[in-house]
Amino acid sequence: MARFLKSRKKSHGTPPGSLIFIGNKKMEKPEIYFMLYNKDSVAEQKAESLDEIPEVVPNGSVLWLNIYGLQDTELVSRVAERFNIQQLEQEDILNTDQRPKITGDDNNLTVFLKVLEYRPEIEKVTGDHISIVVGKNFVITFQENIAHSFEPVRERIRNGKGRIRKMGADYLAYALMDTLVDMYIHTIESVGTVIEDMEEEILTQTQKSTLEKIYRLKTNVGFIRKNIWPVKEIMFYLNKTDTALVDKRTLAFYKDLNDLTLQALEAVDIYFNMTNDYLNIYHANVGSRTNEVMKVLTIFASIFIPLTFIAGIYGTNFQYLPELEYKYSYFIMLGGMLILAAVMLYYFRKKDWL
């Protein structure tokens, strides 16, 4: 299965807005959780059906609805109908291969992002699709699988820490995106540590396993880069938008989040260039090692050329060779050949060819 693109055979030829799940089924049955909170109280619950979700959000309160599992298109359609989510946005929610982006209208903003995690046991960066729908007094998150990515945000809501219970749905959306960007930086740091630790191995080793490690790291960095780069466009939109769904007090936090996103992108570019450099260094080392071998073989061939010449002369079949009748001819020839070889070795060493 392709890592950077997922199969779209099921949606091939269908009209825009068709509700077709694209991706791998990661849960047998979707699960629904919600939190309803204000500055004074918080209530959370696992719901068996959408009917248990409060239809009216009290003034001053925020509803956070979390849907785990995207394969139930009917459930997504019911949620969309209730919270006025556009048809095309529903299609993107169900498409786990959707590129990170932001869309919006007068009713809500919808942000599509990826949850990235580096798993050292398989030396691979994995990613899950997540959609965040922001309304006037609600936030809906659609996730592929049960994950604890947003648990720090839930704890802040439960404990009433910071300003999250005093702010609106736009600040909750900021807190969720901030958590994801923090995860991006942590993932980049984990992969970057592996890349930097390989520096000595790259400079000294030319085994095939080293090339395989470089390729895996380069693929991981490319995967991170593909999923983080569009986030810059999302941050630009949020910082320039004049929608009534984002309070002016929250804009300062989105500007800070934009800086954090740029920092992540800069780090990704650095590590991407490092993997390219590692690949070039590896090939240069392999070429240098091959040249060293060829040099040694050439030196030995150069030594044996004159020795072979001498041996060829005395190996001819002429009837009369005066040296053949001399008692010590063989020893003289052998000594001369050894002296010649020694002189050539001395010359090569003096020239620093050995």
Automatic annotation (TrEMBL):
Its main location: membrane. One of its GO terms (molecular function) is cobalt ion binding. The chain crosses the membrane at residues 296-316, 328-348. Keywords: Cell membrane, Ion transport, Magnesium, Membrane, Transmembrane, Transmembrane helix, Transport. It is found in: Cell membrane; Membrane. The keyword Transferase does not apply. It is a multi-pass membrane protein. SUPFAM superfamilies: CorA soluble domain-like, Magnesium transport protein CorA, transmembrane region. It catalyses: Mg(2+)(in) = Mg(2+)(out). GO terms for cellular component: plasma membrane. It holds the Pfam family CorA. Coiled coil: none annotated. Belongs to the CorA metal ion transporter (MIT) (TC 1.A.35) family. PANTHER family: CORA FAMILY METAL ION TRANSPORTER (EUROFUNG) (PTHR46494:SF1). Mediates influx of magnesium ions. Alternates between open and closed states. Activated by low cytoplasmic Mg(2+) levels. Inactive when cytoplasmic Mg(2+) levels are high. This is Magnesium transport protein CorA. It comes from Tangfeifania diversioriginum.
